[in-house]
Design brief:
alpha/beta, VC0802-like, Rossmann fold, 2 domains, ten-stranded mixed sheet, 16 strands, 23% strand, elongated
């Protein structure tokens, strides 16, 4: 039998509340593997065990498990009786055909009654591998790492250990809406908050038909990429161009960008209220653009109907770009487009807006009507990963 064995990240520190985090992690694993049949899923100490079906290829299992927030690392392991000779046979079968030039054996003995200690098992199994393959032992930087975990009655053999996504399981921290611009910053901000356990819905503001659909296409692609980490989400595409024209007609140039952002807060908050969100997430970084000075951020936040989370606020652009590259969103984000932020933007936007002048400018607008019309005109796109229904027969155990 083949198992996914995941070692918990922060979940391992949750004490008496751990059951809530592990239960959510199990549900998330089922969602990410929804198109495959899994056997029993259980927690055992600081580990998650999931039985994998034969139809699930190793490469797919590794790809999916790497998206599961809450795991520090994981292995694909085979269970055998806790007998040294049987363990040796399983290891030798697993390493046949390897191109590695060096290896190491790492044994963890959970059953202290086992006849040999961990170092002795390492030496016995390592000697058998060296004799069979003729490759060198390298305990510092091996090309091939053989993992052995010995429990009462059973042992688990794995080849290689894979990094997990870390953080907390999506869903344990509540629900929020993330403003997704199509640029570099906002997908990184969304990812960082999902990693903190938030389940996200995505809101994108566009100015079609005044501008092309390119920003919507990018938003769809970015939201689909991010949805892989939480299996399902909604992308709300908000028509913003007519609202911007209304602001342009009534508000002096320098304040327009601040008002755009304040209306985004109100609209995203209204959508969030409909989805049960408790907060909003933005990709703002202090001082990066005119709307992100401390004065402007403070004025903009006043229009937010729920808490505003800014996970990138202290990061510089190079740091954000590096995270976007690792996340896999950078190449999509840099595709040229015409988004609503480029429409009707004054040459010299206000960088130190005062609340009283912004509120005076907004007094000439029918705020509630403008927000309602934008929300009513919003398109909802449902996103799922994987795009197939769950296989039957899954069993959850504690």
């Amino acid at each position: 039998m083949r198992y996914l064995i995941g070692r918990y990240h922060e979940v391992a520190l949750k004490g008496q509340n751990r059951w809530r985090f592990t239960a959510q992690l199990k549900r998330n694993l089922l969602d990410l593997m929804a198109d495959y049949r899994l056997g029993a899923i259980r927690s055992e100490g600081p580990r998650l065990f999931a039985e994998l079906g034969d139809e699930l290829e190793d490469a797919v299992a590794i790809e999916r498990a790497s998206l599961l927030f809450g795991l520090q690392n994981f292995t694909l392991s085979r269970a055998v009786p806790a007998d040294l000779k049987i363990i040796e046979r399983e290891v030798l079968a697993a390493v046949q055909g390897t191109s590695a030039k060096s290896f190491a054996v790492r044994t963890r003995r959970e059953d202290k009654r086992f006849a040999l200690n961990s170092m002795q098992v390492d030496r016995e199994i390592g000697g058998a591998v060296k004799d069979a393959l003729g490759i060198a032992v390298d305990l510092d930087n091996p090309e091939l790492t053989i993992g052995i975990e010995i429990f009462p009655e059973r042992a688990f053999v794995s080849i290689g250990k894979h990094p997990g996504a870390g953080g907390l399981p999506v869903g344990v921290s509540g629900r929020a809406v993330a403003l997704l611009s199509g640029g570099i910053d906002s997908p990184v901000a969304a990812y960082r908050m999902m990693r903190r356990g938030l389940c996200l819905e995505f809101v994108h503001f566009h100015s079609y038909p005044l501008l092309s659909r390119t920003s919507q296409d990018k938003a769809r692609e970015l939201a689909a990429h991010l949805t892989r980490y939480q299996a399902h989400a909604n992308l709300f595409l908000v028509p913003f161009g007519m609202l911007q024209r209304e602001i342009v007609a009534r508000v002096r140039r320098p304040l327009r960008v601040v008002l755009y952002r304040r209306f985004m807060m109100r609209i995203a908050g209204a959508i969030g209220a409909q989805t049960g969100a408790q907060a909003m997430v933005t990709g703002e970084s202090l001082g990066q653009v005119a709307s992100q000075t401390l004065d402007n951020m403070q004025v903009i936040e006043r229009a937010a109907p729920m808490p505003l989370l800014r996970p990138l606020v202290g990061m510089d652009k190079n740091e954000i770009i590096e995270q976007a590259r690792r996340l896999g969103t950078f190449e999509t984000s840099i595709i040229p487009d015409q988004d609503c932020c480029t429409l009707f933007v004054p040459r010299h936007p206000e960088t130190h807006a005062r609340p009283e002048e912004v509120e005076a400018a907004e007094s000439t607008l029918n705020i509630q009507q403008m927000v309602t019309e934008a929300v009513n005109g919003t398109e909802r796109v449902e996103l799922r990963f994987p795009p197939r229904k769950a296989a039957p027969g899954v069993q959850l155990t504690d």
